[in-house]
Design goal:
49% helix, alpha/beta, eight-stranded parallel beta barrel, 14 helices, single chain, two-stranded antiparallel sheet, binds 1,3-dihydroxyacetonephosphate
Length: 341
């Protein structure tokens, strides 16, 4: 069983490939569709995701896709299960299993991610539906004026992540462990560093206590960036240097790979940051992408819910995936963006 898990984890971070996070919950996908003037119906959600899964990007650049519960059960227009489309492209289906971040008692302004009850049974069902990896996201906000994050919330979220990861591995499913330190707010880059360091140290301590096999998991962290509203923004070189530094200090080399979230960075920033980190070299784990917005913003805009735009949307998705694939290899240049544009 451990060999099976390890092999999946390694495949998820294979050279030049990364993960498509397409697991937007009903609320989040509605927000994305609102932005492009598309009604969020079951059919529209299916059509949109089907176009992604049928694009050229899949076989070339996408090692795995994180799905939402609705999507893992959905069929394409011609009746093919969406899961089969992903598998036919040589990519691995995955599933978001957390039940969302809910207000945490006695921690005003903070959340705890729910979804552990009955998770073992749900994982069995998802395995039978084809999922070979899962995702659970813990949300860590920063608000230094209110002493956020608190020890209480950070510790509880790390513990839940570790409980989830152990349940996954028992079900032969590779856990993506995602402690996301948000880039909302006006904190500086060093505050992001400090909080991320604390979160990662705590998460790996809890993973150890829950006996999680590090070789059979993938970490999905934020990068070290200043808050969106911070007075001083950081250069690509500074983000890369600080992110690699905190990861080296906190992530054991037994972990096969680290697949970043994009977290609200611009498409090109998310690509440039990844590329700069890989170019630094000398890393004990693979670095790649597990982007939602930074892979999908462009195809969503190009599609805008119109069947005649499907080709354009697929081209936009394939382009972003290609740019990120180059970045994961440390071979991206800003010129590649212009050439394609
Ligand atoms: P973003 O890349 O849009 O942050 O989404 C990734 C994800 O899966 C967050 O849980």
């Amino acid at each position: 069983m451990t060999a099976e898990l390890d092999a999946i984890a390694q495949k998820m971070v294979a050279d030049g490939k990364g993960i498509l996070a397409a697991d937007e919950s009903s609320g989040t996908i509605k927000k994305r569709f609102d932005a492009i003037g598309v009604e969020s119906t079951e059919d529209n959600r299916r059509d949109y995701r089907e176009l992604l899964f049928r694009s050229d990007a899949m076989a070339k650049y996408i090692s795995g896709v994180i799905l939402y519960d609705e999507t893992i059960r959905q069929k394409a227009k011609d009746g093919t299960p969406l899961v089969s489309l992903i598998q036919q492209a040589g990519s691995i289906p995955g599933i978001k299993v957390d039940a969302g971040a809910k207000p945490q008692p006695f921690c005003p302004g903070e959340t705890i991610t729910e979804g552990l009850d009955g998770l073992g049974g749900r994982l069995k069902e998802y395995y039978d539906l084809g999922a070979r990896f899962a995702k659970w996201r813990a949300v860590i906000d920063i608000d230094t004026t209110r002493h956020i994050p608190s020890y209480t919330s950070l510790r509880a979220n790390a513990h839940a992540l570790a409980r989830y990861a152990a349940l996954c591995q028992e079900a032969k499913i590779v856990p993506i462990v995602e402690p996301e330190v948000l880039m909302d707010g006006s904190h500086d880059i060093d505050t992001c560093y400090r909080v991320t360091e604390w979160a990662l140290k705590t998460v790996f301590e809890e993973l150890y206590y829950q006996r999680v096999r590090l070789e059979g998991m993938v970490l999905k962290p934020n990068m070290i960036v200043p808050g969106k509203k911070a007075a001083t923004q950081a250069s690509v070189a500074e983000v890369a240097e600080k992110t690699v530094r905190v990861l080296k200090a906190c992530v054991p080399s037994a972990v096969p790979g680290i697949a970043f979230l994009s977290g609200g960075q611009s498409d090109e920033d998310a690509t440039a940051h990844l590329d700069a980190m890989v170019k630094l070299g000398g890393l004990p784990w693979k670095l790649t992408y597990s982007y939602g917005r930074a892979l999908q913003a462009a195809p969503q805009k190009a599609w805008s819910g119109k069947v005649e735009n499907v080709g354009k949307a697929q081209a936009a998705f394939t382009h972003r995936a290609h740019m990120n694939s180059l970045a994961a290899l440390g071979q991206w240049t800003a010129e590649d963006e212009r050439k394609a544009a």
